[in-house]
Amino acid sequence: MTPLHLEELYSLKILDTENEEVFQNIVNMAALICKTSDSAITLIDKNRQWTKAGTANAIKNIPVENSFCIHTIASRQNIYIVDQPETNELFSNNPLVKKHHLRFYAGVPIKSPAGTTIGSLCVFHLQHHQLSEEQVNALQLLGKQVDLLLEQRAAFQQAQEEVRELQSKEGINKLMLSMLAHEIKTPLSNIQQLLGLFQQGALSREELTHLVDDSQERVDLLICTVEKLMYLGTQLLHSSSRRMKFYNIEELVRETVALQAKDIEAKQNLVSISCYIDTDVYVDGIGLQLVLNNLLHNANKYTTSGNINIWIFKEKDTLLIKVADDGKGMDKKTVHTILNDSPIASSLGTKNEKGSGAGLFLTRQYLKHTGGDMFISSLPNMGTTVTLQITEVQFIQEMNKAV
Fold this sequence. Notes:
Elements: H1 3-11, H2 21-34, E1 38-44, E2 48-54, E3 61-63, H3 69-75, E4 80-83, H4 95-98, E5 104-111, E6 117-125, H5 133-199, H6 205-237, E7 244-247, H7 249-259, H8 261-266, E8 270-275, E9 279-284, H9 285-301, E10 307-315, E11 318-325, H10 332-339, H11 358-369, E12 373-378, E13 384-390, E14 394-397
Helix pairs in contact: 2-5, 5-6, 6-11, 7-9, 9-11
């Protein structure tokens, strides 16, 4: 299937959900009107056909290569009919024909709210059968009713999510304001002190130049921190703003490393990337890149003339990314503080680089908010390994990109 098809399907969050009466009523009505033994509402996933609602002989999951409904999608017709499939080269060896004795199939396309065909409302019979013009029209009307139900279901889900977001906004807003106040206060206080000393004539030209450079560094840090806080905060407050798309995950990681290439070179660190995923990944790429950028920044900050290794792999339906360095490391108390959702004061890097400590805290909050988590293994002077666990993903094989 195409990435667009799967993006639309996954955005509905309907796969593997419980049966719903409104959909079951549709298939019951379709079988009754078309006078067939069975009917089903099916959705085509990356490697399977999944049944949302069906009558007695409807199979919940079948391999996509055995699907009749995928041909309904590929045909781009208003209705796709197969009579006598046992004599049709496309279907004669299909298990549904040989084992389950299917002898008639008719399917109409089901579309997502965006208009992408994602499945079929179908009727099928264990004997040869035909549909009248009235039955064809009725089946098509029922298919459009399924489209409408999907649209209404998606709108209801979005409304529920917005209610949950509103309920959590107050606490998150307080957290964001508190952290912003903390991050802004220190640099501004330093600048204020600098201006006061300058006005009193207490600074030499050399001292003034040095302090201005230091203040510039603090302002740059402030701008970076505020941008990070605002982006991650937006994601925490508005889950619907996450930009879920298919990404080549190795390319995404390499792009992130390239953004910090100068800093990494300046610290004389070497970065290696090992990717064990041969699939595109449906994920919030912007959020993931921001999280990776923060972890890579920290690994480089606390390492000099060392190695930073990044591993990308998956376990079942979970994306895992490990970032490991052989730098300063952290003691158990610091690790415990981070993993217990408490903001920490950032320590100086190996070249006395300053930091805020907010990025790592917000990174974990963002991961937890999106159904993931972060794990840390570290010892002083033994380096640090951070593992990202990302569950809000889908994988697609390259071979399944096209019908």
